[in-house]
Each structure stands twice: as structure tokens, then as C-alpha cells.
Design a protein that fits this description.
With about 280 residues, the chain is α/β, with parallel strands linked by helices. The protein contains nine helices and nine strands. The strands form two sheets. It has a seven-stranded mixed β-sheet, with helices on both faces. A two-stranded parallel ribbon has the order 8-9. β5 and β6 form a beta hairpin. The longest helix has 23 residues.
Amino acid sequence: MTTTKGEAESTRLVTGVFAKRPRAGEVKTRLEPALGAAGAATFARALLDDAARRLDEPGLGLELVFAPAEERDWFAMCFPGHRLTAQRGEGLAARMESWFEECLGQGPGDADAGRAELAIAVGSDSPWTSAARVRAAADLLEAGKDVVLGPGLGGGYYLVGLRRPLPGLFTDITMSTRSMFHETLAWLDKRSLSYALLEEDYDVDTPEDLRHLRHELADVPADAEDAEGLEESMEPGEGDTLEWRNLPDVGAAAHATHRPTPDDPSWPHAVAACLKELGS
């Protein structure tokens, strides 16, 4: 019997990368004015390639949570050896709730206790979600937080982690809106659930996001030695027009100012190569 990478990992943590097969006209459609339909799909594939490589580290329990379900063969061909889980349910909220329940069990006292102690879901849309961030989220959950979120500049979040199922956390919220993040915090506060926040960062969804990413890729020093002191000298949003927010004073919330260098394993190599090939 062949064991996938995800199945060989510890059951302490499962990290699910939610992704759709990158077909032209079906993914990253808001980037089409800048990249065209085919270019946007190529870019989406590069984001997914980087996420699968970046998070494929011991202890993270990586799996690709894919859609649509009939594309399993494509994902198996493109990402051999990775654990694959089809998204189930109507709409993203139901699919996320279903995945967390499958990982963690249906709830207290359920006969099916789930297959992991902690579960973290990320999208492939953020080029900077590193293995270190996932580990930081897992540590916060293990320390007792009910939920960990990675706030997104677009109003949502790029990472969400749970240590037990929370029915309604996704399905009670209006997904994919600029109010999604704050609706989620209000939902948690109403139920007296504890949460922690990671660094605020962004998904690449719009031409403005793309311009910001190009700026960051061009502005990062070539190696770690050249990067010495860069983190202290940078200000959030310097050289771009993205709006950074004032976040609640909980957890480790901060603006993401530190970026890896090209010699770091978490550097988005596929994305950088893709954008270079697609041109400006």
C-alpha cells in the first residue's frame, strides 16, 4: 500500500490548502484585465505550486483540499504523493465547515473523534503564507486558543485554524466580502470564544494586489546578508497603495513587513518565474 505524504505525518496537525483546478475563465477572474484569462489561470497554478512546495514540511500534515471533486486525477498527476481530499458541500462556507468536521470530528462526545488534534486551512492565494506561520498558528491553538486567524487585507483571512469544530463559524458569515473578517470576530466574541491573530497580509486577487506583489518581488534583496536591517527600515505598505488596518490587540497581530529572500525555501519561486514570463 502506498502511503501519501499527509498520511505519513503526525495526527497532531492537518494543514489543508484549499484550491480549485486552475482553468482559464474559472479562477482569478479579477486579474484578467491585467493578465488575460489564460495568464490568470497560469498565475493561479503558480500560486498553487508554491503553496504545495512551501508547506510540504514534516509535522504540518499537508493535504490539498481540491475542487471540483471530479478533478482528483488532475491533482494526483500534478501533485504526486500528496494527500488529496475533495471539497464537499455547496459553497465555500459549507465546504470549509465539512473539512474541519472531517479532520476534527463532529463535536464533543462524537464517536468519530476525527483524525487530527488541530486543523489549519489556508488558501493558495497568498504567496507569503509560510510553514513558519502555520507552525505559529498551531502553537497558539495548542496553547489553548479556540481559533487562530491570519487577517487578509481584502477583508477576509488567509488562514484559519481550529482545535475543535465550531458549527456556524463559516456558514453564519457572509463569505468573500470586505466585512467577513470583522463579522467573524463578532461571531467569536458573541460566543466568548478565544482567538489570536497572525500577521496581516494579502491575497493576490486584484490588479492592485498584483502591482503590490510585483513591487515586493522586485524590492527584496538577493540574499539574507543583503537583507540585514531591512525589516527595521521598512514600513507597512511602503511603495504601494494597499491599505493596512488597525487590528484588535490580541494574539500576535502585526503588519507583515518581513519577507523571505530568494535563497529562502519560502520564497515564491513559481510565482516570480510566472510573472517574469507573463511580463508587465
